[in-house]
Amino acid sequence: MNLLMEVSAALALTNVALLIVLLIVYLRIYRSSKAIFTQGLIFFAGMLILHNAIAVYAYGAMEPLYDDKLLPYFVAIHGAELIGIAVLLKITV
Question: What are the boundaries of each domain within the chain?
Fold first, then answer.
C-alpha cells in the first residue's frame, strides 16, 4: 500500500476511535437528558463513523483504482476531519 494511502487509513481509523468516544459521551448525555438534539448528535457521529470505516475499507480494497495524485487530498481531508473531531470532543468533554 502507498505511504500516503496508509496515512489516510491511519487518520480515518483515528477518526473512528475519537468518534466512538464522542458517541459514548453523547449516549450518556442522552440517557440523562432525553434531548432530541442529542439524538441528532448521536446520528451524526454514527454517520461519520460509517464514512470513515468505508474509507478505510475502500483504501484497502480499491487501492489500484486510486491515482497517486489524489492521495495528498485524502490525507488533507482526513487530517482536517481529525482536527474538527478532536476540537468537538474537547469542547464536549
Answer: 3-92
